[in-house]
C-alpha cells in the first residue's frame, strides 16, 4: 500500500535549482536563475511571466533543446543530463510532446502525415497509430482537414493538428509554449477547452507557458516567474472556484508583476 | 568597418561552402586547360610533324574557349545563387538596419572580387599543375611515354583564364544581385521553402510522362537504327525528340511521385517526409533536372566515344620499322646510302638495315588485265553475305595490276618483326594487304580461300596464292599504301618488274627501349639532316594517327568531364539549397525527437533519388547515344570491333557511375555537416 502511495505522489517532472546564463560575465543574461518546482502526474500547470522573464528558456531546457548551465531536470525519476544521443532523441519524442506557438507543422506534409510523423521518427508502425489518430482527430475536430496541407488550414486547425501530433505517442508530459499566441480568441478558447478536456478526462499532464490570462485560467496551478526566478504561485481551488474567479485572481497577480513587488498576495 | 565585413564574409564563404569554392576552382582549371593546349608536349611534338592539322585544331581553341565560357557560366551562376540564397536573411537584416541598396551591392561586389581573387590565387597554380599532369599522361597514353617533358607555364593562357573567369563571374553576379536587390526586405527576412506551387490535374502529368516516354523511344529508335545519320534534318529531329522527351518525362514525374505520396504507405523511418521532400525537390525542379540529365548524357556519350575513338585510331599496325631511306633505281643508290651512314658513324645506331624491293609490273599488256584471280573472287562470292565480304569483293575487283614485293626483302622485315618467315615456290605468291584495308574478319575470309591454293594469272603465267595475308608495312612511308600486293620470289620479282622496281633501305633503331622512342628519333633526325640523305621516319606516319587520337580523345574527354562536373555540381547545389531552405522543417523534426541518424538517413535517401533519377535516365539514354555515335563516327573497318567498343563505353559508363557516386558521397557529407549543425542545441553566444 505504501508502495502505491509513493508512486502516486512521485512527481512526473522535477526541476531542481535550474540555471541558465547567457553570455560571459560582463554582459551576462540570467535567463533562469535557480528555479525549483515539480509537476505531478495529471497536473495542468501554467507558467506566466512578462516577456523576457525566461519562460521559453525554461521550456526549452525541459525539452532538451538547450542545455542548462546548472541544476537538474528529472522526468519520471530519470535525470535528463544522463541521456545522450538516441536516448535523448527518444526522450524528446516519447516522454514529451511539444506544442509550439507557431505550430511548426511541415508545410509539405498533409495533416495526417504531420500527425503520424513522430511514429515514423521513432520506428513505431504507422498502423498502430491509426486508431489513436482517428480518436484524436475526432476529439480535436480535425477530421475534415486530415488530407489537407497546412497552407489550406486555418490557424486553429493547424494548432489542433499540432496538438494531435504532440499527443499521438501518448507522452508523459505535454509542453506548450504560448500555444494560443498565434490564434484568435475563438480558436484560442476552443484549443484551451480541448487541452483542459484532455487533462480532465484522459489525465494528460500539461505544462503550458503563456502570458494570455484567458488561457492561463484553464490551468489548475500557475507559477509566475520574473527575472529567472519563481516569485509567486497560484492554485485554483478546483472545482469550487470557477474559471472566471480564477481569471480574476490571475489578473491581480499580473498587476503585481507589472509593479515588480513580489509576494504581495 | 565596411572592409572588415567584406573580408570576414568572403573568408567565411570560402570556409563554409566548399562546393562553391570548388566550382570556382573547376572553372579556372577548365579554362586554363583549354588555353594551354598549344603548350602541351604532344602538341609541341605534333606541330613539328603535322603542323597543318595541328594549326587547324589550335584554331578551334577560341571556339572551345567560348563554349566553355558559356557552359561554365551556368556552373558559376548556380553556385553563386546558392551562395547568395543562404545569406538572404543576412541581407534583409542589413537593409532593415538602414543599409542602402547601393551599399549592399557594393559590399557584395567587393566580396565577390575578393572571393574571385582568392580562387584565382589557388586555382591558377592548381590549373598549371594539372595541365602539366595531363601533358605527361597524354604523352604516356598515346604510347609515346616518351617525349622529354618540359615545364611550360603560359602567361597568356593564365591571363585569358583570369579574364574569362572574371567575366562570367561578374555576369552571374550582376544577374543574381539585381534579383536580390529587387526583393522586398520582408521577403528576404523570412526563410521559407519554395512553397506549394499550384498543381495541374494529375492526368496532365500522366500525359506529359507518356509523351516523354514516347519521344524518347522514338529518339532511341532513330539513334540505333542509324537513320539519325541520314542527314542533318533527321539528326536534328532525333536530338530534338530526345531533349523534348527528357523534359517531358521529368515534368510528368510528378504523377508517379504524387501517387506514391498519396497511397504508398510504409513504416520506413520518415517515409512520408522523404517522399514529400523528394516530390518538392525532385519534381518541382524538373527543368533543371532534365538539363542536368542531358548534360550527363552528353558527358557519357563524349567519354565513351572519345575513349573508343582513341582506342580505334591508337590500335594501328604493329611498329617494326623506324626509318626508310628511298633509294633510286640504281642499286648503287642503296650502297651509297649505307656508305653515307657509315661515314657519319650512324650505322651503329641501327640494329637492322635491310633493302626493301617493291615494284610495278612491267608489261606490254593492258593494265586492266595484268592480274586475274577469278577463283578467289568466286570463292568470296560463295561466302555468306556480309558487309566485310562485299567491301572485300569491291576492293579486290580493282586489284588488276598489283605491286610486287620481293620475298627476300619481305622476309628480312618479318625477321626484324620476329614473325615466322615465308617460303614460296617459283609459281607461288603471298598476299600483302595494308592494315588500313583489311581487318581480322576480312583477312580471315581470305586466309580460308588461300588455303585452297587458288590459281591466278599474273602477266599470262599461272601463279598460285598461298600462305596467310601479310599486313606488316614494308616501309615507314605512309604515302606508299599498298592496298593489295603480291609477295613473289626474288627472280620472279626481277623478271616481272624489270627496271620498274624501287629499292628502299629500311632501318630499325637499336636501344630505343631505354630512351624514349620520340627523343631517339628526334635526335637521329637531326643527325640525318646533316648527312643530306632523304628519309622517312616512323613518327611522321604515326603523327597523323597520333593527331586524330589526341584531338578526339582530348576534346571529347575534356568536354565529358566539364559536362559531368557541371551537371553534378548543379544537382548538388540545388539539393543543398533546398535543404537549407527547409531548415525549419528539420528543426521541427529535431524537436519531435529525430536523432541525427534518422535525419541523415532521410537526407541520404533524398540525395540518392535526387542524383539517381537524372543519372539513371542519362545512363540508359547513353546506351543508345554511344551506339549511334559509333555507327556514325567510326569507319566501317571498325565495324566488327563494335562489340568491343560497346564494352569500352560500358566500362566508361561504369567509371562515370563511380564519379557520380563520389559526388553523392560529397554532397551527403556536406548535408550531414549541415544537419549536425542543426542538431547542436542552439548556439550560446
Ligand atoms: N540564445 C540566447 N542568447 C542570449 N540571450 C538569450 C538567448 N535566448 C534568450 N536569451 C535571453 O534570456 C532571457 C529570457 O528569454 P526567454 O526565455 O526567451 O523569455 P520569454 O519568457 O519571453 O520566453 C531574455 O532576456 C533573452 O534576451
Ligand atoms: Mg518566449
Report on the architecture of this protein.
The complex is a heterodimer of chains A (265) and B (685). Chain A has 9 helices and 10 strands. With 265 residues, chain A is α/β, with parallel strands linked by helices. Chain A has one domain: P-loop containing nucleotide triphosphate hydrolases (Rossmann fold). In chain A, strand 7, helix 7 and strand 8 (205-209) form a beta-alpha-beta unit. Chain B contains 25 helices and 10 strands. The longest helix of chain B is centred in the last third of the chain and has 44 residues, at 538-581. Chain B has a 10-stranded mixed beta sheet. Chain B folds into 3 domains: 1-192, no CATH class; 194-317 and 542-662, no CATH class; 323-541, no CATH class. The site of magnesium ion (MG) has 2 residues of chain A, from helix 2.
What is this structure's SSE topology?
The complex is a heterodimer of chains A (265) and B (685).
Chain A: H1 2-9, E1 13-22, E2 29-39, E3 44-48, H2 55-62, E4 70-75, E5 78-79, H3 85-95, E6 96-99, H4 111-121, H5 126-140, H6 155-167, E7 173-177, H7 185-202, E8 205-209, H8 213-216, E9 221-226, E10 229-235, H9 243-259
Helix pairs in contact in A: 4-6, 5-6, 6-7
Chain B: H1 2-16, H2 18-35, H3 41-49, H4 51-59, H5 61-85, H6 88-96, H7 101-141, H8 155-181, H9 185-189, H10 202-225, H11 232-252, H12 254-263, H13 271-284, H14 286-314, E1 323-326, H15 332-343, E2 350-359, E3 371-372, H16 374-382, H17 387-396, E4 403-406, H18 407-417, E5 428-432, H19 440-450, E6 455-458, E7 461-470, E8 485-488, H20 490-497, E9 501-509, H21 517-531, E10 536-537, H22 538-581, H23 583-591, H24 596-633, H25 642-679
Parallel strand pairs in B: 4-8, 5-7
Antiparallel strand pairs in B: 1-9, 1-10, 2-4, 2-9, 3-6, 5-8, 6-7
The complex binds adenosine-5'-diphosphate and magnesium ion.
The site of adenosine-5'-diphosphate (ADP) has 12 residues of chain A, from strand 2 and helix 2.
